[in-house]
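Database export, one record per block. Field names are fixed; values are copied verbatim from the stored entry.
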Amino acid sequence: MGVRPLDLLDLDDLLSGAERDARALARRVADDHVRPEVAGWYESGRAPIRDLAVELGKAGLFGMHLTGYDLAGSSTVSLGLACMELEAADSGIRSLVSVQGSLVMYAIWRYGSEEQRSHWLPALAAGRAIGCFGLAEPDHGSDPTGMSTRARRDGDDWVLDGVKTWILNAPIADVAVIWAKAEKGVVGFVVPTDVAGFAAHAIDHKMSLRASSTGEITLDGVRLPESARLPGARSLMAPLSCLTEARLSIIWGVLGAARDCLDTALDYAAGREQFGRPIAGFQLTQAKLADMALELQKGFLLALHLGRLRDAIDKPLRPEQISVGKLNNVREAIKIARQCRTIMGGNGIRSEYPVMRHASNLESVLTYEGTSEIHQLSIGQKLTGLNAFAH
């Protein structure tokens, strides 16, 4: 057996000991608590999210890049490597960590009051509480500037009305970070999900990300005190900065799905014989494997560069930088998954192998937190200085 794809360039030499430790920890969690059962969760469309959250919390994987409140304060690269290992098990599990840590916890950590931080961050970090992030709406996905959810003042309180959709964790969440338009711009709120007027309904019959819980949120006259508002969030830039943070996890995570597909295809090709010898010895198969290994390594180097840059400047990356990473790595990860399926023939669609599950999951990852087209326009605007988005 030859070397594994990410060993071709000795890429581990670029990582610190702490970063390798974070990767090993996440891999153990995935091996112990996800891989043995995930195929069944995917087929049934149900996963024990609360039990998984507790295990992920014990390992310190929620909000591990944040500081204070007993959080680890790990590097962005450590978080990325952890996400790569989790998504190598399943995209839905990595999505759980990204939403909890890089959307919900980050929003509270960066824009919340001290009271909100001290109340929610320890519970979310431990997995005792589950959070969701309500930005996307039925008619406003790629264009959050048009959001219809409204927040109006009523005496000392706020009243929220609207609908949010395709919200990961919504059906099981204890708290929701909700974004709404107010008289003076976009504002955010920390909303306990047991408050009157808040309802979440599961979106069923998904063909992708089936080992996760996704839903639609309705807000019908939800009354909140001023203390529920995120005081540091004063415009649409606040939720967009949270998305920038979470997209780093995606840029890393999809490499795990791609690597798992490629490892599976390599092992399969070495043992599958046709015409009297392993198909791994055929030129066309080796050409496929070489091209996929090349793209996987390029994606890793891109993710590592963005992670190092984020750690060096200690602030969110520019939108076009994130767009380069998400556009390239998700697009190439899907290509790798599909190509691995061709190597495995009909067996590539069986649930005993992860390839088809990864390929299906990556179709969702391609779309959420910015479609490929949106990221292309973000890059195009930076290159030309011209805004091609619809007005």
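Remark 1: The chain is about 50% helix and 15% strand.
Remark 2: Residues 237-271 form the longest helix (35 residues).
End of record.
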